[in-house]
Model the fold of this input.
Amino acid sequence: MLSKDSLVFDYCPDFFEDERGHLFTIWDDSKNQFGIDFNHDKVAKSKKNVLRGLHGDPKSWKLITCLSGEIFFVVVDYRKESDTYLKHQTFLLNDKNKKIVLVPPNFLNGHLVLSDDAVFFYKWSYVGEYPDVNSQFSIKWDDPKINIKWPISNPILSDRDLNCNYIS
Done:
């Protein structure tokens, strides 16, 4: 597991629920202990057994939750100088537990959809240009050096995830 000093945090926000549904806050800047300025939001909807990742970049923070459905979420320390280099942590994110994970720069992340479909939400914080695919790093989802115990062995992958490299 990653240590506290690895900077990966997960939490469950306060939320309100009644017969109409529920309401919860993903980000409250008044509780921003890291001084992070989020400047970009993304939403991905995927079907069951789709695996996206492992991806990361050297400059962005990501605040991640699952708005609908359920995902198996993985974070990997990709900081070569770290004592926890290539160690990973897994989380079950879904619309019932409302768990939120903060992923720092130089960490890989990936998710596998466990439900029929899922809506994955993430806020990005970065300085300068958007860290698009060309400035990100991608590692094979089943890299034996990381040894993630994914719940399935034959996920649906993008061309990017099919063709990325193992750690050398």
Residues 4-17+34-163 form a domain with the Jelly Rolls fold (CATH 2.60.120.10). The mean pLDDT is 89. Residues 135 and 155 are 25 Å apart (CA to CA). Helices lie at 159-163.
